[in-house]
Amino acid sequence: MIVNEEAVKSILEEIKPAKLVAATKYVDSDQIDALEACGCMIYGENRVQAFLKKYEEYKGKGQWHFIGTLQTNKVKYIIDKVTLIHSVNSYKLINEIEKQAAKHDLVMDVLLQVNIAHEDSKHGFDETEMDEVMASLSNKPHIHVRGLMMMAPNIDEEETRVYFRKTKALLDRLAKDYPQYELTELSMGMSNDYHIALEEGSTMVRIGRSLFKD
Ligand SMILES: *Cc1c(COP(=O)(O)O)cnc(C)c1O
Fold first, then answer.
1. Which residues of the chain have pLDDT under 70?
2. Which CATH superfamily is domain 2-213 in?
3. Which atom of ligand 1 is closest in space to residue 194's alpha carbon?
4. How many A from CA of 154 to the centre of ligand 1?
């Protein structure tokens, strides 16, 4: 697939002031330059191997986010190459990110993934665990938690609204209870549901399909 320039430009305009994270799993490295040429400066990969290849080949000014399920043993490959990990979904992963970030003497920005609809098929912390998760971060100086990430259930677009709203309410509650972190980011919304996600407070949409064409 290749970049649909008109679509990228119009989506960038439409979602303002939210940020566009282009889900680049559908395209090769050369298309990242085409995204940059349209003004899209954040690229999100969901597989470590594909990410590393594109990261090596792309020489532009944009930044990379990791948006997919991240295996603990692969944190070391991406820790110094991405500016945000959206998909932090276990204590094991938190511990490994802290360890690898410390090794590189950097502070990693992360989002905590919440399984807001309690789906067996989805990763993420349960809402009820969040205070325990926040407590576990208090002795992790190399992790800077910036907000929450969620994936809506695969249902009718309008029915996803309740889950976006719940995630936003959870973020607001955590921001109030943990003012020492700057919890401002909400990564939610993909091609099929980003309009609703934005209406419910998303600050970052992860869009793939809608940016590309055959
Ligand atoms: C592919 C992907 C997206 C984008 O999905 P589209 O339906 O192509 O817009 C968003 N988030 C994650 C984690 C993805 O892997």
1. none
2. Alanine racemase (3.20.20.10)
3. 9
4. 12
